[in-house]
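@here heads up, posting the sequence + SMILES for the zinc ion run so it's all in one place. Ping me if the SMILES looks off, I pulled it from an old spreadsheet.
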Amino acid sequence: MSDNHLYESVAALPKIDLHRHLEGSIRVETLIEVARLYQIDLPESDVETLRPHVQIVKGDPRTWREFLGKFRVLRRFFQSPEVIKHITREVVIDAADDNVKYLELRFTPHALSRHIDCTYYDVVSWVCETVRAVEATHDIQVGLILSMNRHEELQIGEEILRTALEFHDCGIAGLDLAGQEPGYPAEPFRKVFLKAKEANLGVTIHAGEWAGPENVRRAVEHLGADRIGHGVRSADDPDLIEFLIERGVLLEICPTSNIQSGVVSEMSRHPLVELFKHNVRTTINTDDPAISNITLTDEIVHVVENTTLTVEDIKQQILTAAAGAFLPEDERAALVNRFETLLASS
Ligand SMILES: [Zn+2]
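bot reply: prediction finished. Complex structure tokens:
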């Protein structure tokens, strides 16, 4: 298959992204507009010179510090309700334009409310309202996940949970624990996530990315994770692989992000292949399309070009993603049916 042909066939595939951060998906061009409008003191004032401050570029150190550093710059742009709505709208449209038919978009209300005099409730209502409006005009369904950071106070997490429960019937599908994995165990957030699970919210935990496989097991055993953000280090532990299969835990793998943050040395060695071949439930996602300068189509093409996975394997992973969506059971079954039909004809 020629490169162009592969790209076009993947672009045409109906796709699912379960792991994408709103803050990591802002168009660089939009940053310039927002900076002018709100007089944000930017390191640079045109797209190409701004790019290295918000995007991973050639020569950047491949470390979690560098990767999270881009987030810190990006979060400065959320300066008003209008900006939050504008960015959310563009992010969902970009996904729809890439033929993502089902997207679970996560965001951190604490970070987004930092520069605006507002509550978490306000931020979530602006994002929800915008997403519903885009759904009405584009062929995309969006679930929302609220994130909290493991390196921040537990109190923030408790408030995020309260907000998620208030919005449970109108768009918030799950909770996520993100942030600095090294040095910050997930256990202090145990109660928050167990309560979320009791209330039928989906639970996903970033683990086994910048720290070892033991964090993946702990996220499942102690926090009730249904899904793991990344979890690529699971491949280092054969017992954990068995455990993940037994429990049916789904891994939200983001290959380019792993390479850019130094978790994996190169695509041809990505543990995704081994995990998939062992029948662990694996999916391919973008994490931060803007920071990584990729689309989901790019991500899948990179995987197919550089590993032994085929487009047929990718289709199987898309169905795995549908079956792992944070939706009520009947809606999840409908999503799986829809994708079986769509993929059979593509
Ligand atoms: Zn992530």
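MO: Residues 19, 21, 178, 206, 229, 287 surround zinc ion (CB under 6 Å).
MO: One more: The beta strands are 15-21, 100-107, 141-149, 172-178, 202-207, 227-230, 250-253, 281-284.
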